[in-house]
Design a protein that fits this description.
Layout: H1 4-14, E1 29-35, H2 38-54, E2 57-63, H3 65-77, E3 85-89, H4 90-98, H5 112-115, H6 126-131, E4 142-147, E5 149-154, H7 155-160, H8 169-181, E6 186-187, H9 194-206, H10 223-236, H11 248-256, E7 262-266, E8 285-288, E9 298-299, E10 301-306, H12 314-324, H13 327-336, H14 351-356, H15 360-367, E11 370-371, H16 379-394, H17 400-411
Parallel strand pairs: 1-2, 1-3, 6-7, 9-11
Antiparallel strand pairs: 3-10, 4-10, 5-7, 5-8
Helix pairs in contact: 1-2, 1-13, 9-16, 16-17
């Protein structure tokens, strides 16, 4: 792994950081809003280097995720101009775009004086750009970071059992049953909450169906949806003891300490699994898209950089966003935190990154048919109702079709 300063110097050069003909004023201050945590800490070093090289001041307002949306919305709705660049997930994007909070970026992404000559806009995956394209067809955020649930399995345990890594629903059920009969099973994030509905979304896409029909109406009683939830119920029967009440973190921990032969967890937590100082199984794990009935699929849980419409420095803010999204800066970020997955397709096959992040190939296969959770205004209520219903189904003999019909009846009128 190359040094941070050397890597960033390369990143700045590739991103057009010489700023020929477009030198920024010394008194420009850019304020960036994002959630706090390890990724923010790593990003602070990037921002400090950018500020030094670009001759601007960059302030990072990193706050608890639970307060982030409220603070961003308050500032943009009252047009305080406090923020120049905000970190926004796909779940909030349509609300922000519909409210007119965001700057349209279509002209900026084509302006080499802002992006640098080597930025290569075509390198972004089309699915990621679609997520951050508003209803009027304008791009209003630059896709940056993604994670998706994947299946993690212990290669040694599978070899001892003479089992092949599971790809289909039948394969997964057979492997889970085998290990359950041996006293373990599959670790599942089936606690009532967002993780179980995330898994459902991936399994629906892998069964070539969705929460909604082609007419845009809620479609939970469709036979393919019912079959998907029946599969989740069957899989829950072979779960590691107690894991039907777990979220991502608990699943990750038992995998990390070699207490489960396989489990479903999210890629944003995978760095801990391959850290030899923190994991009992580093180097012994395999990664696959969640097994599917018809096609590999993944969940686009994404974050992007957007320039608020009330920013006092929109062009300078976009220049910073483009630099953060340059291939070299993204490569540096991925080396700093291997669980960081960007949307540049050229990085999907980077051998150095693949060595540091052995899940990268599986994640990119899953992103090939990436879907988002429902993004409509009423979607949070729907997902809450489904997570409650799913949690009940996987821990009991409750009829999946009846549960789905009940949620359909209660929620359909909201869409």
């Amino acid at each position: 792994m190359h040094g941070l300063r050397n890597g960033l110097a390369v990143a700045l050069t590739l991103a057009g950081a010489t700023f020929a003909g477009t030198v920024l004023a010394d008194d420009v201050t850019l304020t960036v809003s994002r959630w706090a945590g390890p990724q923010a800490d790593a990003q602070q070093k990037l921002l400090d280097e950018y500020a030094k090289q670009a001759g601007v001041t960059v302030k990072l307002d990193a706050i608890d995720y639970g307060q982030l949306k409220q603070k961003q919305t308050l500032n943009m709705s009252t047009k305080t101009g406090e923020y120049d660049l905000i970190y926004v997930p796909e779940a909030w994007f349509n609300e922000y775009a519909d409210a007119g909070y965001l700057t349209k970026l279509d002209d900026m992404v084509k302006d080499q004086s802002l992006t640098g000559a080597d930025w290569n806009y075509d390198d972004f995956s089309k699915s990621s750009l679609a997520v951050y394209t508003a209803k009027d067809g304008s791009l209003e955020a630059l896709p940056y970071f993604a994670q998706t649930p994947l299946l993690v399995y212990n290669k040694d345990e599978f070899a001892k059992a003479n089992l092949q890594p599971p790809k289909s629903w039948d394969d997964l059920l057979a492997a889970a049953k085998y290990f359950h009969d041996q006293g373990t099973g599959i670790a599942l994030p089936f606690k009532q909450g967002p993780a179980i509905s995330n898994v459902m979304a991936v399994l629906l896409a892998g069964n070539d169906t969705d929460f909604f029909g082609k007419d845009g109406k809620l479609n939970l009683t469709d036979p393919a949806v019912v079959d998907t939830v029946k599969f989740m119920q069957q899989l829950g029967q072979y779960s590691l003891n107690g894991s039907n009440g777990w979220h991502w973190d608990e699943v990750n921990k038992v995998l990390q300490f070699g207490q489960a032969p396989m489990g479903i967890t999210t890629s944003g937590l995978f760095t801990a699994l391959e850290d030899p100082n923190a994991s009992n199984v580093a180097g012994h794990l395999g990664y696959l898209p969640i097994p599917y009935n018809k096609q590999a699929a993944g969940l686009l849980q994404t974050w992007a950089w957007a320039v608020p419409a009330d920013s006092k420095n929109p062009r300078e803010a976009f220049k910073l966003a483009a630099w953060l999204d340059s291939k070299a800066a993204l490569t540096e970020m991925s080396h700093t935190d291997p669980s960081f997955i960007s949307f540049r397709t050229s990085l999907a096959s980077d051998p150095d990154l693949a060595n540091a992040a052995p899940w990268l190939a599986a994640a990119n296969e899953a992103f090939g048919h990436g879907v988002t959770l429902p993004l409509q205004t009423a979607a949070p209520e729907l997902l809450d109702a489904l997570s409650t219903g799913l949690s009940g189904v996987v821990t009991s003999s409750q009829d999946p079709a009846a549960m789905l019909a009940d949620v359909q009846a209660k929620e359909a009128g909201k869409f």
